[in-house]
Design a protein that fits this description.
CATH topology of the largest domain: Rossmann fold
Strand content: 15-25%
Largest sheet: 10 strands, mixed
Strand order of the largest sheet: 3-2-1-4-5-10-9-6-7-8
CATH architecture of the largest domain: 3-Layer(aba) Sandwich
Number of domains: 2
Helix content: 40-55%
Length: about 300
């Protein structure tokens, strides 16, 4: 269960794309405390920034109470002096934060974020899940206006990727298990036809590719069936998708096709984040998906 959610703000419209998601989670997740955090470096502007963070907390609280039956909504603001990424990470560790909600990037792209902005640095340092929300997400997805909440979970068959599963179970539990469907996805990357494949092996290259694709689907299907069983035993509906194609593009397509409320996936350690920021699956999904993304460091 998520009990304390930290929402860093930087007095920009970009960071405030988190407001709708924060008031939705505050209203839906019973017992969740939301802490808005602003870090400034200029002591002379402390008073101004304190007013901003307190006003933001009042705004989110009012919206959450208006749209929820839960009246025990805990939202407060905090102001710190220092370097944003370091102070966010330190505050998270010292205050038992178990979820960080941040804006990742706007409609124009992720380039500044990927090159070292606060969101990237927090993701690199954080020991708790980070929920990234970008500008341009459909309101119905954020504000619980769909008949069913759908969580898309990309897996690759490794134990490290399964580190996301407890977080998904916690999210489903707080959203309400009866209203959640988990969609597991594992992509088989198709083999390309080789021009120098020997013609005397008795099996054409096309037939060999077809066999390999079928084998991948059978192995992946068996693997996902066990994960489905885990969720069903926990009282959560689950189903699987086994597309052929580029993993990041298939994840993006599935999220759009299923109108997923959330994509939940793992990134791999400190060294993995460095590579991730410059072009692997998670970063490509961050750029292309119009869906909030829950990221856990494996």
């Amino acid at each position: 269960m998520f009990r304390k959610m930290l929402v860093p703000l930087d007095v920009s419209e970009l960071s405030e794309v988190t407001f709708n998601y924060a008031n939705e989670l505050a209203g839906r997740f019973k017992g969740l405390e939301v802490i808005l955090l602003h870090v400034c470096s200029d002591r002379d502007t402390v008073s101004l920034h304190r007013t901003y963070i307190e006003t933001s907390a009042d705004k989110i609280r009012a919206e959450a109470q208006k749209n929820s039956k839960n009246k025990d909504i805990k939202i407060r603001g905090e102001l710190l002096l220092g370097t944003p990424a370091d102070e966010i990470t330190k505050f998270s560790e010292q205050n038992s934060i178990d979820l960080i909600l941040m804006a990742s990037h706007g409609r124009s792209g992720i380039s500044r974020w990927a090159m070292g902005s606060v969101a990237y640095k927090v993701l690199r340092q954080s020991k708790v899940p980070v929920l990234m929300v970008r500008a341009g997400i459909e309101d119905a997805i954020i504000l619980d206006r769909l008949p069913e909440r759908r969580i898309l979970v990309p897996l690759d068959g490794t134990k490290s990727a399964e580190a996301i599963l407890p977080q998904v179970e916690a999210m489903a539990g707080q959203w309400g298990k009866d209203a959640v469907q988990v969609i597991l996805i594992r992509t088989c990357e198709p083999h390309s036809v080789s021009s120098d494949y020997p013609s005397d092996l008795g099996v054409s290259w096309e037939a060999r590719v077809s066999q390999e694709n079928l084998k991948c689907k059978l192995v992946a299907g068996s693997y996902l069936a066990n994960i489905e069983k885990r969720f069903r035993e926990a009282g959560v509906k689950a189903r699987s998708e086994l597309p052929l194609g580029n993993p990041s593009q298939e994840i993006i397509n599935s999220a759009a096709r299923n109108r997923a409320n959330l994509i939940a996936m793992v990134i791999h350690g400190r060294s993995g984040i460095s590579r991730w920021a410059y072009g692997n699956t998670a970063e490509e999904v961050m750029i292309g998906a119009r869906t909030p993304i829950l990221l856990v460091r494996g």
